[in-house]
Amino acid sequence: MKTWVCVVCGFVYDEAQGWPSEGIPPGTRWEDVPEDWKCPECGIDKSAFTMIEF
Questions:
Q1: Residue that wins the pLDDT comparison between 22 and 4
Q2: How far is Cα 15 from Cα 6, in angstroms, rounded to an integer?
Q3: What is the Cα–Cα distance from 26 to 44, expressed in whole angstroms?
């Protein structure tokens, strides 16, 4: 599982946790998140996210 961060606001999407309130169940890989999904914090589209490694 990978973690992705919004380069605009810093919101973190963790594949292991998903985003259930947005209809994205835990374990959903980034490439399986719908292309029209927007950052819940700033509203920017998915292309503004970059993978981060811990």
A1: 4
A2: 14
A3: 21
